[in-house]
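explain this:

___
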Amino acid sequence: MSEIIVEKNEDEEGPIPHLWRPIFTEIVSAFVKKDYNLSTGIENVSSVSESSAEQIKDYIEDYGEELVELPEETWETSVYICYGEYWNVLIDLWTKSEGRSDLVLNAEVREKNDEYEVKIRLVYVP
């Protein structure tokens, strides 16, 4: 399987680049542990405000299912698209009883000093 690279395509969604996948896996792992503000810190991920963390917590709790770690299959359906200065990312989330759920993690990824910085926007049902 070939590596998926980061593209600045504003016309079509693409699969999440391999380079970003460990970061999103780590973010979701924190959410599984109910660490919605990422208190332990994740390299190249902006801190999550208290209000955003509370909103993420509420959406997940209101959904009513137990969030689980991302399986490899999540990369088959999760996507990103370039919006000029940043990439908008949608990661499909999984739950214990459903498998792939209706919940998604929405984030922005920006280039910064030859690296990529992730900003969590929201967890919601589109």
In short: The first strand starts at residue 14 and ends at 15. The mean pLDDT is 94. The two ends are 30 Å apart (CA to CA). The longest helix spans residues 50-63.
